[in-house]
Structure formats: structure tokens, C-alpha cells
């Protein structure tokens, strides 16, 4: 009996152990899948917000908080400091006074919000004011860039116009955020997170590249002035 049991024991096929290389490959694949899933989570999160809210609303938050507040806000500070001190050659104390005037449109935010609610344009309360703020900011910025050294009062008016455009856009998107947060309360924390992420990312990119942009702008302006002087024969 013992001989038969022994022969049966040795005759049974044992499950083959997987090679060590297979285990290492599986671990590598698992790590890659984990990394890919982590990298895709922000995009999946944005897709979820776009599907449950509205794609235009998500794009508006990205543009206003990311491009307007974060990126343009940081660029605006660096550019205006350079413009007043190097182009206009204004004293630092006067520059501080001018910088204080930039905040007047931001102090008037309740008035902008009242305008959007009380005076709709063709039945729309938000979209026309987005367009108005964009046109106002674009015209004011182009006037500073193209005309160069303007009279101080006119230059200050243009820069206040840029600041007003940023403030109006901020008020309009904040109203949209409040409406969506009330209608879909479960997504209110996600909306606030989206705003903060866009603002922080835009500011980081803006402060990191502002010096390069100002340098390129100065070179471009020098080329334009030299071309104008040569065209009119001015030495």
C-alpha cells in the first residue's frame, strides 16, 4: 500500500511555478497602468464636469480664472511696472499711486454685478458682458502697445480699462459659478477646486514667462521704432 501511495504521489503532476520574469513583467505593467490612471484622472474629472455642467461653462472658468486672473494678472503687474518706470520714467511713488487706481474697477464689482442682472442685453445677462469685457481689454491693451509712450492720463485710462475688463469678466463668471453651485450642490466643491487650480496654474505660468515676454516685447518695439525712424529719415 505504501508503495502504491508513494508512486501515486510522485506520478501526480505538480503545478508549474511561474518564472520570476513573468512576475516582474506583471508588476511593471501594473505600475504603468497605475501611472497612466493617475495622469488621466484630471482629464476624466474635467470630462465629468463638462458632461454634468456645460462645456462652455468649464471653458469660461478656465479662461477667466486661468487666462484672465492667473496668467494675465501676473503679466499685467510686471508689464505695468516696466511701462511706468522704463517707458514713461515715472517716479516710484507715483507708480504706487497709479497701481492703487487699478483696483477701482475691482472695488466696483458689485456695480458690475448689478448691471448684468438689471440691464440684460437682448435677453442675455452674461454673454454680452463677456464680449464687452473682451473688447474693452483688447482695445485698451492694443492702444498701449501700438502707441507706446502716451500721455500719462491717457495711458492710465487704458490700463484702468484693462483692469476693468478683467473685473467685469470675473463678476460674470462668478455669477455663473454661484448659479451652478446652487443648482447642482454636489458639484460645488469641484467647481471651487477647478477655479483655484486654473488660477494657480495660470499665475505660475505667467510669473515664470513674464520676463521673457517683456523682453521680446521690448525688442519688437525697438524694431518698430527704428523702422519708423528710417522711413521718415529721422536719425
From TrEMBL:
Bilayer-crossing regions: 53-76, 96-116, 128-147, 153-173, 194-218
Keyword set includes DNA damage: no
Keyword Transmembrane: yes
Chain coiled-coil ranges: none
Annotated Gene3D superfamilies: MFS general substrate transporter like domains
Pfam families attached to this UniProt entry: BT1
GO cellular component, one term: membrane
Subcellular location: Membrane
Keywords tagged on the record: Membrane, Transmembrane, Transmembrane helix, Transport
Name the record gives this protein: Folate-biopterin transporter 6
Species name: Cardamine amara subsp. amara
Amino acid at each position: 500500500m505504501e508503495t502504491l501511495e508513494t508512486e501515486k504521489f510522485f506520478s501526480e503532476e505538480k503545478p508549474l511555478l511561474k518564472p520570476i520574469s513573468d512576475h516582474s513583467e506583471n508588476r511593471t505593467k501594473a505600475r504603468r497602468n497605475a501611472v497612466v490612471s493617475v495622469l488621466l484622472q484630471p482629464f476624466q474629472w474635467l470630462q465629468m464636469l463638462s458632461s454634468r455642467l456645460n462645456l462652455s461653462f468649464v471653458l469660461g472658468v478656465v479662461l477667466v480664472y486661468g487666462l484672465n486672473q492667473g496668467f494675465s494678472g501676473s503679466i499685467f503687474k510686471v508689464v505695468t511696472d516696466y511701462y511706468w518706470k522704463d517707458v514713461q520714467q515715472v517716479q516710484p511713488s507715483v507708480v504706487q499711486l497709479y497701481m492703487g487706481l487699478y483696483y477701482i474697477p475691482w472695488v466696483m464689482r458689485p456695480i458690475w454685478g448689478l448691471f448684468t442682472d438689471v440691464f440684460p442685453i437682448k435677453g442675455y445677462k452674461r454673454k454680452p458682458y463677456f464680449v464687452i469685457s473682451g473688447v474693452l481689454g483688447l482695445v485698451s491693451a492694443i492702444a498701449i502697445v501700438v502707441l507706446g509712450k502716451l500721455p500719462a492720463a491717457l495711458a492710465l485710462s487704458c490700463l484702468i480699462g484693462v483692469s476693468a475688463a478683467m473685473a467685469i469678466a470675473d463678476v460674470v463668471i462668478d455669477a455663473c459659478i454661484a448659479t451652478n453651485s446652487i443648482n447642482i450642490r454636489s458639484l460645488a466643491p469641484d467647481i471651487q477646486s477647478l477655479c483655484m487650480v486654473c488660477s494657480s496654474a495660470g499665475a505660475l505660468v505667467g510669473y515664470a514667462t513674464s520676463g521673457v515676454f517683456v523682453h521680446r516685447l521690448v525688442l519688437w518695439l525697438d524694431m518698430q521704432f527704428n523702422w519708423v525712424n528710417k522711413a521718415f529719415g529721422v536719425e
